[in-house]
Amino acid sequence: MLHLLYILAFTILALIAVANLIRNLIMFSFDRERPYPGKPSSMGNQGNFGYFSSKGQYIPHPELLDNAGNLIKEPLLVMRSINVEDARQHLDALYEASPGHKSENSEEA
């Protein structure tokens, strides 16, 4: 008898979970079709990395703000080109400076 009670309880829980899943999918599809207000032109060319508050105000992503809360205007990642030999020399220097590196003289002894 107890087995039937368990089966009935888990069946009810499964039906509630499936109904909740379907309801969330429907709500997300309605939410996706809803138009959002455009972001302010004062944002510049920063991309759309933020979200809208419940008041419809655009809030930028926290990583795009400096310590004072102002938008960062410079690029976040700057890469310079380097040739293969220079990269190899830098990697070798890092490897030889690492604490776990043993020199060739200590390996031979």
From TrEMBL:
Q: Which domain of life is it from?
A: Bacteria
What keywords is this UniProt entry annotated with?
A: Membrane, Transmembrane, Transmembrane helix
Matching entries from InterPro entries are given as: Phage_Syn9_Gp224 (IPR021355)
Residues crossing the lipid bilayer are: 6-26
UniProt keyword annotation of Transmembrane helix present: yes
Membrane is among the record's keywords? yes
Its recorded name reads: DUF2973 domain-containing protein
